[in-house]
Amino acid sequence: xxxxxxxxxxxxxxxxxxxxxxxxxxxxxxxxxxxxxxxxxxxxxxxxxxxxxxxxxxxxxxxxxxxxxxxxxxxxxxxxxxxxxxxxxxxxxxxxxxxxxxxxxxxxxxxxxxxxxxxxxxxxxxxxxxxxxxxxxxxxxxxxxxxxxxxxxxxxxxxxxxxxxxxxxxxxxxxxxxxxxxxxxxxxxxxxxxxxxxxxxxxxxxxxxxxxxxxxxxxxxxxxxxxxxxxxxxxxxxxxxxxxxxxxxxxxxxxxxxxxxxxxxxxxxxxxxxxxxxxxxxxxxxxxxxxxxxxxxxxxxxxxxxxxxxxxxxxxxxxxxxxxxxxxxxxxxxxxxxxxxxxxxxx
Length: 347
Description:
It is built from seven helices and 16 strands. It is of the alpha+beta class and 347 residues long. Helix 1 runs antiparallel to helix 2 and helix 3 crosses helix 4.
């Protein structure tokens, strides 16, 4: 008998960590930052006051650490004898926004979640363990995600793609090194290929976050050119698969509506299907009010045959109209300005 398998994609709008110091109240934060400055000053002295360094380390436990590059700090007599610096300890940003991100993910109850705009794997792990699993999955008796993966992409701000999975990941392939004809990075972030060990047949996922429509003039001609190059490359990668037999998914934030010529290489490719077409035409949108679809799950014909349901989880987006979580009270508290796309298959 076939088993149900659910996949979701969600732009969680900057799931980042931040220094634990800034999670304290203002007065305490100022005190801790002052002690960080004192520790840095001590570590620059020609002769160390080791008692003072020990006192500051103890006071800053959980907030700052000495990063000792060559393991010489303990025996060093002064600044000339060691190499290192003071690092701020980072923690998952725990507030109502992060909780609403977790609420969306928990309500998809997907076996594999494609996440857009994640800082790094450690941030994702902290979010999963401290917020998603502890506050939402366990109370609902849902399974956690033991497989968490992200690779640093090309975005200098640290905006990356990531995968959370209940299904084992067998291998991954990054495309951060793909280059354009002008020898610039082809992908704005990455096209991350992930192979997942479904029970009956492997699933091959290509996770993307195409060039943003923001920070451009007019109707975004430069962004459209970049997205066309990116979707063309993804279509080339699809050519290595038998789409009539293999389970293949292209998912993520494509940053253009479905009728955009820049997305045609993927959305119009023979053997691939945009699952949102299962929904009524006016219900396919994923951005803000739902007018435009920017987030996609595009599947091979082999997987389309197993498609049993598609829905869009919109309750994390703050809009004047429409159903929202009670905890989504403003743009500040919304989970994201994107809704999640959720597709279920009988595989």
